[in-house]
Amino acid sequence: MVMNFEHQYIEYRDSGYWIKEKRVSLDSVVYQWRDGLSPETIRECYPVLSLKEIYGAISFYLDHQSEIDEYLQQAEVEEIEIRQRIRDLYPEAARRIDELRHTAKLRTR
Question: Which of 35, 99, 100, 102 lies 20 to 30 Å from 3, alpha-carbon distance?
Fold first, then answer.
């Protein structure tokens, strides 16, 4: 779903919402903010962004929360479908990745 909007810090391009003139997606900022990171901490993760841009992204999200949540949910569904197609195309590689993940989990316990 694409909204008609004009915003100081957010633009829609390449089938997604992005910080204007940057290569950082709105998704990246929103997920980190929803995970509890402060705008200042998000700034450390994305030094290319100013605090104004980060606060602007959060403000845009809050102003359009239902639409953006729907967009994020659709993106997650598409990611799951793509991952499954890759697993179907490369079953041996998928099996090996699963083994490596299992081994990594055992090591972190």
Answer: 35
Q: What is the pLDDT of residue 2?
A: 59
C-alpha 33/C-alpha 92 separation (Å) is 37
Total structural domains within the chain: 1
Distance (Å, rounded) from C-alpha 64 to C-alpha 51? 20
Strand pairing class (10-13; 16-19): antiparallel
Strand ranges inside 31-87, DSSP E: none
Q: What is the pLDDT of residues 1-43, one digit of tens each?
A: 556 678 899 999 999 999 999 999 999 999 999 999 999 999 9
Q: In which residue are the tokens 């633009």 written?
A: 11
CATH of the domain at 42: 1.10.10.10
CA distances, 12 to each of 2, 3, 25, 71, 80 (Å): 8, 9, 10, 12, 23
